[in-house]
Design brief:
Blueprint (H helix, E strand, L loop, with lengths): L1 H4 L5 H7 L14 H10 L8 H16 L3 H30 L5 H15 L9 E4 L18 E4 L1 H21 L1
Parallel strand pairs: 1-2
Helix pairs in contact: 5-6
Length: about 180
């Protein structure tokens, strides 16, 4: 086929190559197992160039790389639904901005709630983890030199949390 496309052979030449001396052998009265075996092995091996095989393999790889139609449709549906939710949340947020009877704080919480329903969750501030050892051991207030959110943990608790994360990661890998 590749040779035909690249005009290296003609159609009539390909038809001629399809015939050989075994095409017109009489097959009457022969057992089916013999005919099956003959059908497998008496075909002429037409020479195929390396470039032609590489081109066919590349074409097949391109076909295999395409996503399955159902998967592509599902992804498109998911994207469409997310877009719809976001548009709905935007309209609701515009309505909240114009509402005169609400305080600023109520408006902000209502907006966060609508955005949360839309799937666009605001980024939470990073929590600094402080291990309770040395000066921080048994500390009840804010440790010195720590700004923003923090959480005091003991070494054992920190190790257990890391182990749990490792375990979760391993189970996720096994599922995929």
């Amino acid at each position: 086929m590749f040779a035909l496309v690249n005009r290296q052979t003609t159609v009539s030449q390909m038809i001629d190559d399809g015939f050989n001396k075994h095409n017109f052998n009489h097959k009457d009265g022969l057992p089916t197992w013999f005919l099956d075996d003959e059908g497998k092995h008496w075909k002429a091996n037409l020479p195929v160039t390396k470039e032609a095989m590489d081109a066919l393999r590349a074409k097949q790889r391109a076909l295999d790389a395409r996503p399955i139609k159902k998967v592509a449709e599902a992804k498109a549906r998911k994207k469409f639904k997310a877009h719809q939710r976001l548009e709905k949340a935007k309209k609701k947020a515009e309505g909240l901005v114009d509402a005169p009877d609400m305080s600023e704080r109520d408006r902000a919480t209502a907006m966060l709630k609508t955005l949360g329903k839309a799937g666009a969750k605001p980024k939470q501030k990073e929590v600094k983890v402080i291990v309770a050892r040395g000066a921080n051991r048994g500390l009840k207030g804010r440790p010195n030199g720590v700004k923003g959110r923090y959480k005091i943990v003991d070494a054992r608790m920190r190790k257990e949390m890391r182990a749990m994360k490792r375990k979760d990661k391993a189970t996720k890998k096994r599922k995929h």
